[in-house]
Design goal:
Elements (H helix, E strand, L loop, with lengths): L1 H24 L1 H16 L3 H5 L8 H7 L5 H12 L13 E5 L8 E5 L1 H22 L9 E4 L4 E3 L7 E3 L1 H7 L9 E2 L2 H4 L4 H12 L5 E5 L2 H15 L13 E4 L5 H10 L6 E8 L2 E8 L2 E6 L5 E7 L11 E2 L8 E8 L6 E12 L2 E8 L3 E2 L6 E2 H15 L2 E10 L8 E10 L4 H15 L1 H7 L9 E4 L4 H8 L17 H15 L3
Parallel strand pairs: 1-5, 3-6, 3-7, 7-8, 8-9, 20-21
Antiparallel strand pairs: 1-2, 4-5, 9-10, 10-11, 11-16, 12-13, 12-14, 14-15, 15-16, 17-18, 19-20
Helix pairs in contact: 1-6, 9-10, 10-11, 11-12, 12-13, 13-14
Length: about 500
């Protein structure tokens, strides 16, 4: 039966790939058609009436008339939707909202997920990714084996219980088509539990003896935690001793480079497939097109109309905004989206760099609010991730997670970057690691190199090696566990680094 399903779905996925190929070979026409659909569909919403969508006939009018928005701008509108009001930002009532805790704020954001957005963006992006994987690897048998995804949890909105919010992964799992449920593990009840520690424990117990698990998904940090618990329980040396058919890991949310060596060590399989995706709470924006090309394909027919703000104008009150046609390869832009859930010209908070235009490919290079520029060095997340990956390979060590903040100038010392790193395997010489990491950053970032010249503004970076389990314990201490929760990589102030060091002091005082 499973074999028949797999063969049938292969034909279906071939058709999906052809449709996807048509979209990425004609991206501007595809985006224009989508733009017209979004404007026409939302014309009679409260937002559409306010900005006179019924007489917007082209993109330039839209660009001039509709303001650029962030979450605070849309929050009052979204709040009314959560209370059950209809026809606000998108036609009809919206029942589902994805909760995004982000990495730059302790406050949660609630992102509308309309039926159109669920089907035509999140679910469609998932099918597009699977279609690409089958196109590149015709021998994989996802629908004869099982998939494991570490999802989040769901809750009812107390003031209006019909509204349900939670991690987008939990929304996806709860609304999984019946045809997919036999191929998913653990069961839905466990997958969307809100007790994260209990969920990990139950997932480990329920999947230890399941020899049919072929693919996994989720944020790297939590998958590694699950792997270690399973290996502790079984005494296995690697995950293939537990799940011998494991072949695919679909990952996104953070740069995978610092984690890849750990996964390769735990899953020692030459033909293992790492498939990167860009699936955020706000939408499914990109997926890896080829195993040989690590850049992501921009999904242009996925319910999202894209615009871009040049890096230098991210914080401007009235920034220049470019259409997809106007972007340049090599330039860094803040991503601006309008979606089939009613996010209009919304600053998602990510920065991207285009690597090609035929088709449009890109890489995620950071967050608009995750950077260090205390001394004019303009260090971005992609700089630190790349440097760490290179130095770790060179010095044969493994990184579990990290966070970086500036040490500001004072009367007694010059500026510096302080790195808190939790190693899976520590370098033999931490000072050598600091020197190599600093040198690599200078090669990657000319602004950092200039500020480091002769130690005039910045001294050599410092690395503090944290006890194992620090970041996991800190997230639990802050009540920030979940499928979408990530350790903040970079901060232009010392808020997170101070908080982590304070947590370690508390643990030390308690004798833990």
């Amino acid at each position: 039966m499973k074999g028949l399903i797999n063969k049938t779905l292969k034909l279906f996925l071939k058709s999906r790939y052809n449709a996807l190929k048509n979209a990425f070979e004609n991206p501007l026409d595809t985006q224009q058609e989508l733009f017209e659909y979004l404007i026409d569909t939302a014309a009679h919403t409260e937002w559409g009436r306010k900005y006179r969508y019924n007489d917007i006939k082209n993109y330039n009018t839209f660009r001039q008339r509709v303001p650029v928005s962030d979450y605070e701008d849309l929050k009052p509108w979204i709040s009314r939707m959560m209370y059950g009001e209809k026809d606000i930002l998108w036609p009809g009532k919206v029942k589902w909202f994805s909760k995004s805790s982000g990495t730059t704020s302790d406050k949660s954001k609630f992102i509308p997920v309309s039926e159109e957005n669920f089907d035509g963006c999140h679910k469609k992006g998932t099918w597009d990714t699977i279609a690409i994987m089958y196109h590149n690897n015709p021998d994989i048998q996802l629908f004869e084996k099982k998939s494991l995804i570490l999802g989040g949890s769901l809750s009812h909105f107390n003031p209006h219980p019909e509204t349900i919010y939670g991690d987008v992964s939990a929304i996806m799992i709860t609304n999984m088509p019946l045809i997919g449920r036999p191929f998913y593990t653990p069961d839905v009840k466990v997958a969307i539990m809100d007790d994260w520690e209990k969920k990990l424990e139950l997932t480990a117990e329920l999947t230890i003896k399941d020899k049919d698990i072929a693919s996994i998904g989720g944020v790297p940090t939590w998958n590694l935690v699950l792997f270690r618990r399973i290996m502790e329980k079984t005494g296995a040396k690697n995950m293939l001793e537990v799940w011998p058919k494991l072949r695919i890991y679909i990952h996104g949310g953070v740069n995978f480079a610092p984690y890849k060596s750990q996964f390769q060590k735990l899953i020692p399989r030459d033909d293992f497939i790492f498939q990167e995706v860009y699936n955020a709470s706000e939408g499914y924006f990109g997926t890896q097109l080829s195993p040989d090309q690590k850049d992501l394909l921009l999904l242009t027919d996925n319910g999202v109309f894209y615009e871009f703000i040049p890096k230098d104008e991210i914080d401007h009150k009235n920034p220049t905004v470019l259409s997809l046609k106007e972007v340049e390869v090599g330039k860094i832009y803040a991503l601006l989206i309008s979606t089939n859930a009613g996010l209009w010209r919304y600053k998602i908070g990510d920065t991207v760099q285009f690597t090609g235009k035929n088709p449009y490919t890109f890489k995620i290079v950071g967050r608009t609010k995750q950077f260090i520029n205390a001394f004019g060095e303009e260090v971005m997340v992609h700089n630190t991730d790349t440097a760490l990956s290179s130095v770790s390979e060179k010095l044969n060590c493994l990184i579990k997670d990290y966070s970086v903040a500036p040490v500001y100038l004072d009367d007694n010392q010059k500026g510096q970057h302080e790195w808190l790193i939790e190693f899976e395997k520590e370098p033999e010489n931490l000072k050598q690691f600091e020197i190599e990491l600093d040198r690599e950053l200078q090669q990657l970032n000319s602004d950092y190199e200039a500020k480091r010249a002769k130690n005039l503004a910045l001294e050599l970076l410092s690395v503090k090696s944290l006890p194992k389990g620090t970041f996991e314990g800190w997230l639990k201490y802050k009540n920030r566990q979940g499928a979408q929760v990530k350790v903040p990589r970079l901060s232009n102030d010392r808020k997170y680094v101070k908080d982590i060091l304070d947590y370690l002091q508390i643990e030390h005082s308690n004798g833990l």
